[in-house]
Give the backbone structure.
Amino acid sequence: MKTLSNKSFDLRHITSWKHREWLDQCVSFDTNRLMVGVSGYESRSSDWIRQTLSELPNSERNAYLILGFAAYQQALSRPMNNSFYEKNDLPVVIPKDDEHALDIVKNAVKKRVDESGVTPVEVHVDYSSMPRSWYCILPVVLSRIVRACDKLYFWYTPGAYPETEYPTAGVEDFKVFSGKPNLNPRSRTHFFGLGFDKIRSHAIWSVLDPTKLVCFYASPGTRADYVDRVVHDNKDILSAADHVFTVDMRDFAYTYSRIAGVVREFNQLGDVILVPDGPKPLILASSLVPVVLGQPGVVCFHVSRRKIQQSEPVNVDSIGPAFGFSFSVLG
Amino acid sequence: MQDRLSDKLFEYSGPNPFHDSQFRAYDATKSQLEFYPTSFFWSLFNEENEILIGTRGSGKTALLKMLTYSNLKHLNYDIAKQHVTSRRYIGFYVPMNLEFMSSLPGQRVKHQDKVIFFQYAFNCSAIHAFLSELSEVLNDIFLDKKLRAEVEFNLCSYLSKIWFADREDLPATIIEMKGNVVQCFSSIFSRNDIMQATEIELLAQPILLPIKNALRGIEKILGVDLTDTHWLVCIDEAEFLDESCIQCINTFMRAEQRPLVVKMATLPYKHSTLATNQPGIFLEPHGSDFNYRQVDLDPESYDFVSLTNYVCNSRLRRCGIESDDVTLESFLGKEGHNDDLVDYYRAEMGELEATEDVIMSGIRGALSEQRRNRIDELIEEPEKLKHAYLKKFAPLYYVRKMRHENSKGNRTPGWFAGAKTIRRIADGNPRRFIQVMNAIVNAACKAHLTPKEQHRAVTRFCSDMHTAVEGYPEYGLFLSGLVDAIGNELQDKVHGQAMKFVGCGFSVSDDFLNKDYFLKALQLGIAYCFIKTDENSFLYSVTQDSSLRLSYLLGVYFWLPLREGGAPPRLRPKNGMITKAELSLGAPLGRKQVKHALDQLELPFDEDSQQ
């Protein structure tokens, strides 16, 4: 396994965006753009592209790349999403696997940068419906392709989850996504990002046997009652934690720097092992922390969900305007 | 009910002293304060390679950490002092945690390279730990600082020549030397080819060989006799090792490598191979090359009772309950004279209902007609009747009546309560004990801890733990369905129309054990202490002769008597065979498949065979 690292990656100069603000300002930016979206069974998977298309002037400056998932092609909102893209002449490309998906995006970005000459390029990725094996790695791999004058944007549309008990995804496999551990550290602190799946959180807790435990979750979250639900469902884990903090997931710059700040604090005592769950912006921010800090003793685990046959897809409608962040690479 | 110390916690708003349940969270002072050395702990000081098999939370890490020289010397026991003074056993702790193992480069390389990566990383970790303990030994031997520094310098020169021959800057202190080891370890992350890692030839040798090669010289430099010293290599969390890594450790154990002795902790069934790195050579258990040892304690053993009392005593001090005679019993209070089941039953149902005659009559009424007839035949022989029915069926009858009481609106019996029950729920697992105590102390802060309040806290805790099973890795979904199927069947036998002589026990037939997912789910349940089995099956493998039972935690959830029961019912396929559709199933199973597989199970109970 190659350790994820990127020396030119600089999240100190990260900017949080609301989609509305960006739409209002972007007409004045002299850039070429590539928008990367997906077609999935969640209705929100086309929302960001839908709104962007409707408000951006039709221009050759704006190019689009839509990836589709091979599974569940007839499930829930997938046919509707496909038909929307079709009507707008945006072909849906179906990658063979995760690696192929990343290659398609990398090649599209490279092509866009190459054909733009001296004109800066904005790459926009709507990761609302992407799997974590795509969206966590894209900031790192794309930052190796773009130039200092270009900008990478990542957008997220918050979703409404079913009120009823959400089926647990369980846990399957624990993989180090980023970072490397110290040899025989003095102590180990596990950082758990919490979400709705309390059974999964409990299973992760049981397997990892945290030494010291720090928990974090989104607050304010997508909705106030979501925060209450996370606190209620995870009360056992929260009560076992040595430290708990919250992050405002709509402000990615704050979320990232808050997590990185607390990680640095605990890293003075020994190793820090991040195990993110919950909303995607939290998972993304946590996954990037070891990459950006680049020091031994900070590790991020990705815990894969149980891949069971006959699992039922769950629809996720958008529940508010998209938000995101942008950053550039160092020259 | 007698006085309860827990009443002192009523309206207490400070931190719950049971909120942390991990030994690893303890600093040096705290670990010595909270570590209770059981007889099992002392038995680990021997010259045999041993693999310690224990469920999650059974205290493996605590045992291994306390075997280290630096921790042992702080234990205030005569045996510990003897071992330290004689330097007969010097332990060093080598963790194999998940992030260590899964961050190692070479996860997807060919077998031979993988072995080299592992040996290199393992040796770095072992040398680092060895140096830490060597430093402690130095401190104890050389009280004169100048002399100590001189010996340390000589030691470092000697070890550097053995371990870091390529380096020009020789370390003068052990701290610097540990820094060198860290640098070597880091080098494997920055090289694409493992063969380019720093000091590859020395550090990628078979595991522990670099240390073994250094031992004789160390003895000379220290100027002390270490002829009788055994260096205990305490390898923790070996459940995260794959077969190729286990083979490296097996190879070490197979070869006569004393005075280095392995004490390796892992989960049940995770020491998955006896193969070594030499084709055709296998490790032999039963003392030849190593022994398996079971870490989990019997919930009613002297060791577990003492341990739980010790934990209560030391933890409750944190919230101001300070007295040498704090025990679990004094904290929870005792019911009646003996704090027995009948005492709790009496407290709920009244004196009259708890008399032998009334209970016997109740038992008679709850049994099948066939059994009622047998009771009637014994009516003139009260002693036989008492032995064959009263003693045997009373625990079943109590729990049956209590559940019935519980089903009445607004009625909560104080049933799953008291020290004996709490220890049974912990099932010999210290962490589970701390977790259930966490729930109980939370309840004690809000209300006086009557048996009813204890019952409420305990049943809520057991229900939460039961819910969590589903999320466990790999076969968690199937395990969850399996314990539910078994629990419901047993519940039906206790609370159904005619009460049957069962407890939490069951057994399985080979038809099921031949199914990989079934066996793996059972093993997962045993590893996480949701299913208990006999020692042989725990250490080796589950067979159709294994005695199995649901953990008492699940016994509470399903309202079962917290005991194994008589001859446990055997799980078997309905209609005597497993259908073709089921045979084609492959793991991991989805919900529908789990249901399909479990719908074919039954726990038949042959009334006549149980007597």
The CA atoms of residues 19 and 88 of chain A lie 21 Å apart. DSSP finds eleven helices and 15 strands in chain A. The first helix of chain A runs from residue 19 to 26. The two ends of chain A are 28 Å apart (CA to CA).
